[in-house]
Amino acid sequence: TKCPDCLADGAMRIYTELTKNKDERRYLLHSYTAVFDKKTNKGYNHVTITDEIAERVLKETPALSVRFKKLP
Questions:
Q1: Whole-number Å distance between alpha carbons of 53 and 35
Q2: Is the per-residue pLDDT at 58 higher than 80?
């Protein structure tokens, strides 16, 4: 491409879209931790987790609540 900053601009745009609704979430993980969803066999961090996944993970393993900085 002719734009030297196109990759950086694209990365920032993706990051902004992923974190845009962060304040509207009911469940927020601490930024230094992650959780594993046994149902989907995937790990999630503070950017990728959704409220639905957080509810399922906490239902399976309530002890993981200490990894969240915001709970309803």
A1: 10
A2: yes
| Residue whose C-alpha is closest to residue 49's, from 33, 66, 62, 63 | 33
Whole-number average pLDDT of the chain: 86
Give the confidence band of 21 by pLDDT, cuts at 50, 70, 90: low
28: which strand partners?
A: 70
Q: How far is CA 42 from the centre of its chain?
A: 12
